[in-house]
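Practice problem 4.
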């Protein structure tokens, strides 16, 4: 008798969600964002995804390749560990990774090799902030390529993280600003970097920049031209040409800190576009008067007085003068 053995083949089927894409591009933004500028800070971030090799086995290195964008004509030179900060930002906490070696290679690539395995969880944001990077020479959209590698050599990425380069600008139309108004507001317009300012200065006889007479609060960047109000505080008492200058805040290591600062021309830096300062001049006309009329005040004969409560095209005259004082 012949025995027949029947073997049933059963296919194993994996049930569950599809594997997540390796690394997720997040954000990048040079500070300042003007062209041809060696930035104070260039934060670049990606998000680790479930099933990424660096989530399963930790991260041994991360590489930023600015030159992967064929339009990049900026520079990455002499970047050291002192110019870089790496932060792992989780759902409820964040930690700084402080021990790594930096290697530059041609074409704008920086590799960070960590001295110890860096734990990374799914959903963690990996933030690398780099200084000493020079932005491309023209306005436009660019990208930096990011990849992360496990200690054993498995690489996730690269993924492209986009950023924008936009020229800073300022325009200063001629305008009138009453020195008898406590705020003495003027309006300028332009494109200002995040946490930047517009400062307004007097102009010396030789054309050089004089004293600061007013500035904006720190500005939240939107890369487009907007109007900004500057208070001169009544300090500009005569008609004159003034200079408006775009600055960026040099204090603080992130936008949240910078947005709580104030302009200090001795400390903060002028924004440049390919080395050209973002500044311009405008003429501010004040009221042609020596003083504002106020009851009980005394004025010298012939003084030109400003009556700010009058109506246009209406004549007024002093009704009483007592011992040289308006009654």
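Answer key:
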């Amino acid at each position: 008798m012949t025995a027949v053995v029947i073997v049933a083949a059963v296919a194993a089927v994996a049930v569950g969600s599809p594997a997540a894409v390796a690394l997720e591009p997040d954000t990048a933004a040079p500070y300042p964002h003007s062209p041809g500028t060696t930035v104070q800070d260039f934060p670049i971030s990606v998000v680790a995804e479930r099933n990424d090799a660096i989530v399963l086995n930790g991260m041994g290195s991360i590489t930023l390749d600015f030159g992967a964008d064929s339009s990049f004509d900026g520079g990455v030179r002499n970047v050291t560990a002192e110019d870089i900060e790496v932060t792992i930002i989780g759902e409820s906490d964040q930690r700084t990774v402080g021990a790594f070696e930096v290697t530059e290679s041609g074409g704008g690539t920086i590799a960070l090799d960590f001295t110890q395995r860096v734990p990374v969880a799914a959903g963690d944001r990996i933030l690398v902030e780099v200084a000493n990077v020079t932005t491309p020479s023209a306005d436009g959209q660019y990208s930096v390529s990011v990849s992360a590698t496990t200690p054993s050599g498995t690489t996730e990425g690269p993924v492209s993280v986009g950023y924008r380069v936009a020229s800073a600008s300022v325009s200063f139309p001629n305008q009138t600003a009453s020195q008898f108004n406590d705020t003495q507001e003027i309006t300028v317009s332009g494109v200002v970097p995040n946490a930047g300012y517009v400062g307004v200065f007097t102009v010396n006889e030789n054309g050089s920049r004089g004293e600061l007479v007013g500035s904006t609060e720190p500005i939240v960047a939107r890369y487009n031209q907007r109007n900004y109000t500057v208070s001169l505080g009544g300090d500009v008492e005569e008609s004159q040409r003034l200079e408006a200058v775009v600055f960026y805040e040099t204090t603080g290591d992130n936008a949240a800190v910078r947005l709580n600062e104030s302009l200090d021309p001795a400390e903060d830096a002028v924004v440049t576009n390919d080395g050209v300062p973002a500044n311009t001049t405008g003429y501010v006309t004040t009221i042609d008067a020596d003083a504002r009329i106020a009851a009980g005040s005394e004025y010298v004969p012939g003084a030109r007085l400003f009556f700010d409560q009058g109506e246009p095209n209406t004549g007024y005259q002093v009704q009483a003068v007592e011992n040289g004082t308006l009654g």
